Amino acid sequence: MDRRQRKTREAIFTAFIKLLSKKDFGRITVGEIIEQADIGRATFYSHFETKDFLLKELCEELFCHIFDAMNNEHSNHHHIFDCDAPNSVFLHLFQHLKKNDNNILELLSCQNNELFLWYFKNNLQKLAVSQLPMFKNRKSDILPDSFWINHIASTFVETVRWWIDNGMKQSPETITEYFYSVV
Amino acid sequence: MDRRQRKTREAIFTAFIKLLSKKDFGRITVGEIIEQADIGRATFYSHFETKDFLLKELCEELFCHIFDAMNNEHSNHHHIFDCDAPNSVFLHLFQHLKKNDNNILELLSCQNNELFLWYFKNNLQKLAVSQLPMFKNRKSDILPDSFWINHIASTFVETVRWWIDNGMKQSPETITEYFYSVV
DNA sequence: TTCTATATTGAACGCTTTGTATATTATTAT
DNA sequence: ATAATAATATACAAAGCGTTCAATATAGAA
């Protein structure tokens, strides 16, 4: 790949991530990206068909790097991950996130849309507060309340999503069972 | 409220929900809404400042109705929810969703943005597949594998979100503990 | 019914953003 | 040194946004 192409591509990605950390994807304009990246308008469009394709390629590149890196570490230090602790894979991911290798945190923390789910979760959290003692009795642990509340609400939302995606074949009772057996 | 206002407002909401069930929020134009609702352009803007405010008000109205209705049922049949089953609140929500009272399913199932989280979850699910036997050994139950996989991935994402929102004070090890104690 | 207030309408407007086209300049790889 | 190609500035049509305004239609009260 031409050095010029590489530099331009990198400049666009960098500018895009910087903008994503500040504002919602939908509110970022191509004009802002090319201004931040300091490139010409036509140049942008010779690299990416649209703004959406830019996001798509950014995601692919990012996750490809991270998860491939993890898999490689697996095969290299095979013994560690097989024998030592069964949870080290996730611990590893958390550690990568803490280091914030690829500005993933900016992408995760930015207020990316989903106003609807925000409302849904917010209301569910209020509900979860009143139900909290019930859950805490089942398992005795030292989790912060806010974590519990968030987890209950999130699991509910995700259960509903899974339900819908799988054609809602299960009865509400069955889904409730599912929900309770993981929460 | 003037009858004309009510009718117009209802027409806008109905048109908006119909469009939301077909396409992403960001791709819906005001022109499409007013065409679907069969109202004048100026009328739309006399009701809602922008498209975003329309979504906001729709969410508020929707969740207000649903959760208020649930709370009322609570106070009316107080005995049922206090004595009978501790999980009936959530069962109730699932039942409401199954009936699809307010077209909530369309709103939940539509591909509302979040391409980034989609990629994140997708990669985590692949990871979860390989870790699945580990989790299933701990609890013996009859949950579908796809549900388990989705739950593990979702809980991870939501744990990260909670972590970020609370300032990332915890160490990766602690967060991993949190994650495993709920999963 | 009549009257007054007000909601709706359609058209026009300036503005921003989008994606494309083109002619010119600069850089690369060989 | 040269041929290929990437980047540039500029201009452009098309689409969407949000506003304005005069004309019309309807609601609710007397």
CATH architecture of chain A: Orthogonal Bundle
Shape of chain A: elongated
Q: CATH topology of chain A, what is it called?
A: Tetracycline Repressor, domain 2
What is the domain total for the residues of chain A? 1
In words, what does this structure look like?
The first copy, chain A, has 183 residues and is mainly α. Chain A has one domain (53-182): Orthogonal Bundle (Tetracycline Repressor, domain 2), CATH 1.10.357.10. Helix content of chain A is 77%, strand content 0%. Chain A contains 10 helices and no strands. Chain A has helices at 3-20, 30-37, 41-47, 51-76, 78-84, 88-99, 104-109, 115-138, 145-165, 172-182. The longest helix of chain A has 26 residues, at 51-76. Mean pLDDT of chain A is 74; it is low at 77-88 and 109-113. At the A-B interface, helix 4, helix 6, helix 7, helix 8 and helix 9 of A face helix 4, helix 6, helix 7, helix 8 and helix 9 of B. The structure holds a DNA duplex (30 and 30 nucleotides).
Summarize the helices and strands and which ones pair or pack:
2 copies of one chain form a homodimer.
Chain A: H1 3-20, H2 30-37, H3 41-47, H4 51-76, H5 78-84, H6 88-99, H7 104-109, H8 115-138, H9 145-165, H10 172-182
Helix pairs in contact in A: 1-2, 8-9, 9-10
Chain A binds a DNA duplex (30 and 30 nucleotides) through helix 1 and helix 3.
